[in-house]
Amino acid sequence: MATFGDIGLAAGVNILTALIFLIAFAILRLQPFNDRVYFPKWYLKGLRSSPTHSGAFVSKFVNLDWRAYIRFLNWVPDALKMPESELIDHAGLDSAVYLRIYLLGLKIFVPVALLAWAILVPVNWTNNTLAISQATDKLEYSDIDKLSISNIPHGSKRFWTHIVMAYAFTFWTCYTLRKEYEAVAAMRLHFLASERRRPDQFTNEGCRVIILNQLLTCKELSDVQVKIVPASVLVKNVPPDHDESVTESVEHFFLVNHPDHYLTHQVVINANKLAKLVKEKKSKENWLDYYQLKYSRNQSQRPMTKTGFLGLCGDKVDAIDYQTAEIERLSKEIAEERERVKTDPKCIMPAAFVSFKTRWGAAVCAQTQQSRNPTLWLTEWASEPRDVYWDNLAIPYVSLTIRRLIVSVAFFFLTFFFMIPITAVQSLANIEGIEKRAPFLRPITEAPFIKSFIQGVLPGIALKIFLIVLPTILMMMSKVEGFLAISTLERRSAMRYYTFNFVNVFLVSVIAGTAFEQLNTFIHQSPSDIPITIGVAIPMKATFFITYVMVDGWAGVAGEILRLKPLIFFHLKNFFLVKTEKDREAAMDPGSIGFNTGEPQIQLYFLLGLVYAVVTPVFLPFILVFFGLAYVVFRHQIINVYNQEYESAAAFWPDVHGRIIYALIFSQLVLMGLMSTKGAVQAPPLLIALMVLTFFFHRFCKGRYEPAFVKYPLQEAMMKDTLERAREPNLNLKGYLQYAYVHPVFKDDEDDEDEDFNGKSDDSVIVPTKRQSRRNTPAPSKMSGASSPSLPDVVLENSSSLK
Question: Which residues are in the CSC1/OSCA1-like N-terminal transmembrane domain (predicted)?
Fold first, then answer.
């Protein structure tokens, strides 16, 4: 059982570790040769030049200005002084709102901690229930458990204090959540309304494959996408037609059903194989650069390599000649694959990017059912081009349900089997209980320092190690499910990560830890008394989570700012691979926020804080330290380091809000169960009423604020369109939207034959068709000559006027 001494040792170790990381960062960031590691975002924006390009030789590597070392902690106020509006312009709304999650934690838990320590701690401490239980029932506890609700006598009237505090904490949390939801929803609408022109505001994004009709050069693509943020719409599951191609079907459908707003479209194709070949070629080119650089430094010996797996087996050959031959082979395969992509009808997928003349028209299309059959011509708001996950674009729509069912089953078994190592970790949290069953370990575990280290530090470290590989596994599962946007993949992975943390890190840790700690009591008491023992023991698991928060939340967050892995990899690449400034820029690894890992971690701390706020108030200061430290660290990283891959305009906030609400309801459920075992008969009805109130509060927020994150108001769209027409009446919208979405495989393509791939751009609204029956799209065509009787003449006149 962890004592005050064990917690103190753990706190000392983690505070010292965090200080070492922070001081090391403060010094390393001052060195010129590390400038690209700790300020990559400014280099990518072109607003910072390398200090190694000027000055004396030594000063290119080491900062010789002694005054800089006196001000080495200036990064803290520098990170805090940038206003939120400027932060949004600099890093995007996603980054700014992500930081607000940490601020939300401080807003909730600072008043809660003050109230809990002022009221609940004295109420809990001024009892001797645990001492009596130890004497009569041999219940194990430590001094820190005297601060918890476990120290309240059975059936005591003091439980009224905890009930009142539960109501107070719930009302404050709900009030803070509503204000924050309202603020973020307003920020999102303002962000979308104030944005400059965005191709995806006018586009139904056919995110299932790549563009067939148009292709940009690398420079043109960069110029277009630099202003892009999400608000696009996805049209998919275009029905097959034996008489017409996909592009003809799409053009017919939108000319007939959106005649006043349809502008153009881009049929897309499957280029996954081509992308893999290009990726493999780039890898071979990197190896060729490495071997050529190695040979230039020592020309007395040609570099050699093996042709087998990872260069570890196979025939030994000249490395430069081998890589050159491989590049030539891949170049030929890429050319053949490009030709196949252009000519093979099987590459064309039933989806398209459809652009509209107005945002209003795009919003109507995205938010309405397009066909009598609700499974055809599916439209929904989709992500911006940077957010597209291209590897999933060729997955058939009909297979998505099966894929998601399989992944759900796999996630269930992953969660279940992970309980085994989690349970083993909990055995480390109570040495006394294990020594009774394994007395031969007593000589080792009884050493004071080793005992304090094992109980205060080792469980948190072990749990952290087991969770390292989990985000990668969960992201792979999300990719298998077939989601088409990086933001959706991360939100899906975050949801599963949070579920896993809830089941394994929290529930299993509490249950398994309680079983280990009270093993002797369980064996020798009657079954009817076991629930009472569990009710007393669950609050005692706060000591384990305190050690986890210190390891993961204190030392872990401080280690994030040090960027040790990117630091090492940058200098290795800089030494072995970099030959030009472009190579040096590619060697930088700015990273991103990592919503799929960061947000579930924060939510676990919300869960722990809300559950233990009433049960064990001593837990709250450790949570506050995490939120405060993390806010400063990640604000610095967002300003100077992270280069966000996409912009979703804070689309993740409903998930954040919902998970906090569920944590709040679960905390009320735990408190109700705990008080039931403690004989507080008045508590269950009152706490059930509190849970009902919390649930209806969630329903209110969901109905009032969530639509701003799901739908684009037509009023906002019309307002933006009206302003744009007044400011830019001669805007060539089609030219702007024509090249909005290009697969990354073509970004660096400088082939002069792009015109063959681009295809023609036809402005005519009279669609040539091969269809013998015009039952579905009764538009005039060059083949049939006349319109269908079911299509009014006024529609044809309007369509002709678009030309």
Answer: 9-180
Distance CA 691, CA 636 (A): 38
DSSP helix, strand, coil percent of the chain (3-state; round to 5) = 70, 5, 25
Angle at 259 between CA 255 and CA 262, to 5 degrees: 75
The answer to whether 256 touches 726, Cβ cutoff 8 Å, is: no
Dump pLDDT digits (tens) for 465-521.
767 788 888 999 999 998 888 888 999 999 999 998 888 878 777 766 555 555 555
**Per the confidence metrics, is the pTM higher than 0.90?**
no
494 token code pair: 């975050």
Q: Over the chain, what is the mean pLDDT?
A: 77
Q: In 3D, which of 247, 263, 267 has the Cα closest to residue 255?
A: 263
Task: Give me the residue label for tokens 């107070």.
Answer: 168
What is residue 762's predicted lDDT score, i.e. its pLDDT? 42
**Which DSSP category does 211 fall into?**
E
Distance CA 350, CA 227 (A): 28
Burial 22-45 (b: 16+ CB within 10 A, else e): beebbebbbbbbbbbbbbbbbbee
Single-letter residue type at 284: K
Check: CB of residue 383 under 8 Å from CB of residue 489: no
**How far is 490 from 651, CA to CA, in rounded Å?**
12
CB atoms within 10 A of CB 532: 16
Is the per-residue pLDDT at 427 higher than 80?
Answer: no
